[in-house]
Structures are given as structure tokens and as C-alpha cells.
Amino acid sequence: MKPTIYDVAQAAGVSIATVSKVINATGRISDKTRKHVHSVMEQLKYQPSMVAAALTGKSTYTIGLTLPDLANPFFAEIARSVEDRGHEHGFNVFICNTDNDPDKEVKYLSLLSQKRVDGIISATRIQNDQFLKKLIQQNIPIALITGEMPTLAVDTVMVDDYLGGFQAGNHLLELGHKRIAILVEDMDNMSNRERLRGCKQALSHAGLHVEERLVAIGGFSVETGQQAMAQLLQLEDKPSAVFACNDLLAIGAIRAARVAGMQLPSELSVVGFDNTILATLIDPPLTTIAQPIQEIGRRAVDLLVEEIKGEKVLKQRVVLLPELVIRNSCTSYNKQ
Question: The whole model's pTM is what?
């Protein structure tokens, strides 16, 4: 049988109340007694019940993290950042991958609620705002990253997507490109819309207009990005450059260009967004808009833990700055 709190108390020669205070880090317990009780717990391999803690209204020291696609290095790096920062605060992190499926997203959020996690960080595009409102009504602290829901009062940590899109478009303009295509995941996501708007605004400032046929929906993967770029390269007046709203789509664009027999970057310049590890591994190395991924994860956890501990009341919207990272996937435009 698994050891109980009673077994720990008996083996340590202390009361059950003392063991409880040590487990929950409450009350006045000497360091000597605390270390002794922890030593006995390790010897007996005793694990406090999170379920029991939740039922008594105590903290379970757990955080839920929902992600749309763990195969995307950006979200894998977000997960690592959140997990590392969570552990620094003494919290375990449950990671849920939704595969960009709204039904799966609701299922995971519901499960996290049932497990009585202390708070939830979501990097998914929560489409069911009514369900999110229910979680808020249950007093579950929630923080959003990589996107926002202006209609809900929740903490949000994100990058300035508009500025990032503007930086990408402006960089290609400075290189002399005028026929610039844009690949976006989809138009339902506010981050994608802002990146698209920023790039269009940069071109508009230069007196250029983006043809709608040069804006393509690239989906969520390298493969779908490659398919979308392949369609753009079939146009009679091909684009000389493309801004892809994430690194996966940018890599898909590079693949499509190679399949079409094009030289990079002399025949097609490519700018991505995210600055994941893939940006340095692809050939040529990818010029991209860097998100401060580690900072996004850390700030989200900090805000959530502050709310869990009752250290703040007001919600915060943190907008971090992107940065253009120049590598070898772009070059000056020289019309043949």
C-alpha cells in the first residue's frame, strides 16, 4: 500500500498537522523539523495527493499549458520556457497539444479545470469565448500568449505583430523588391492579420499596393506552405520576394522555389517570422523576425503566479518588441 500522511507523521515522530504544514509550506516550522519531515517523505516515497489538496481548496501547484502544435519549434520553445519558469516558482506544468482543433482545445481546457490546476496559460486561438468565460467565472487564473481576446479581461503576453510585419516588408523594400508576396497561416488569427497589415502598410508607405492574388493562405505546416508558394510561382509575373508569417511557411516557400528550379536568394528572397532553431538550419539561413520566445514564456508564468498568489488584481497586456534578424535568404533585387 502507498504510504499515507499518517505513516509519515508516525515515522518522523511528529503530528499530522506538522506534516501538513511542511507539505503546504505554512505555519511556523523550524528548518530542522522541515528537513527531517522531507527526509522521511523521501525514504517512504510519499507523494502528497494533488486531488485531495484541490478538494480542500488548497493549491495543487500545477499550471496547464495549451499549445496548437508542438511540432512547430516555436511552440516547443514556448513550452520549454513556461516549464522552466514554472519550476522556478514551484509549479508543475501540464502540456496539452490541441493540433489546431477547436474541439480538442475545449476538451483539454475542460480537463484542466476538472484536475483543479491553479491556472492556465493558452497559446491556442481559443475560438469558444463562452467556454473561456466559464473558466474565468470559476476563478481560474488565465493568461494568453501569442494572441489576445480584447473582449475578455485576462492577462496577455504577446509580440507587436504589426511592427514585425512592417519590419519584414520594409526590409524587402530596402533591398529593391517591389513585387512581394505574403504567406499567412489563416485570416482567423489576429496575429496573422496584424503581421499582414504591417507588411501591407510598409508597402503602402512606399507607394506600392499588394495585389490580393499575391496574398496566399499557407496553413500550419511546411507542406501546406510549400503548396501555397508553388501556386504563387505559377503566376506569369512571379514575385521576387515573399514574407511568410512564420518560419515553417518560410521553409515551405524555400522548398517550393527549389522544386521550381529557382536559385535562392538571387531569384527569390524569403523573410520568415519567429526565429526558431529552424531558421539557422535551413539553406540558405533564414532572415526572419525574431520573437523574444523565452521572455514571452517567463512573463506569462510570472503574471499567472502573481494572480494565483493573490498578489495582483488588475490584468496586464504585455506587448514585447520583435527584431529583424538578417541572414542569407534575402538579397538585393536585380531584374534580369
Answer: 0.83
